[in-house]
Amino acid sequence: MTERWFYSPGDHYVLDDLSGFKIRRSGARRIPGGQTGQALVDRRRWEAQQPQDFVRGVVDDQTVDVARPRQAVRFMMVGTWVAVPAPAGAAAIVVACADGIAVGDRVQIMLDSGVNFTTQVVSRAGTTIALAAPLPAPAGMAGEDARNMVLDVSAPGPALNWPGSNSSGSNGPGSGGSAA
Questions:
Q1: CA distance 133 to 148
Q2: Which parts of this chain are annotated as the region Disordered (predicted)?
Q3: CATH code for the domain in which residue 120 is found
Q4: 150 shares a domain with 91
Q5: Are residues 27 and 87 in the same domain?
Q6: In which domain, by residue range, is 111 found?
Q7: Cβ(106)–Cβ(158) under 8 Å?
Q8: Is the pTM of this model over 0.70?
Q9: What is the pLDDT of residues 77-133, one digit of tens each?
């Protein structure tokens, strides 16, 4: 081989793509593809292509084989609260809204003592509900901030039957009933 800076027929000068220095073509080597993209470099700087350059993406199928869309919002029971305080022994209560409560429904009333009292609706006139059994303790007497709940715990209709419940649907979630 000839001296580096003297003329050599067929061995021309090229620029090293990484360093920018002038080198002889016989002392250069090409880096294949990858990030360097066929760069021509000095043999002392050459290194094999990184194996990660050959990695190709794999399609990741993220579809769900059994899709379960969000259920429609359904109310399980009718609820309201005592609007006018009722003393112990009262046979009727006034509630904030009686929509959805019918004669014959079972209602659960939270008393001021924190105990839930269950009875049946005998009659309904507007927001006044007549009870089959009188209240054993006051409800709604604790003050304006204490709202005693009144829940209709009758069995929901057939549209609200839950898996595992009996045919009347009385032991579904939120029904308040117990399996017989």
A1: 18
A2: 155-180
A3: 2.40.10.170
A4: yes
A5: no
A6: 78-156
A7: no
A8: no
A9: 678 889 889 999 999 999 988 888 889 999 999 998 889 999 999 999 999 999 999
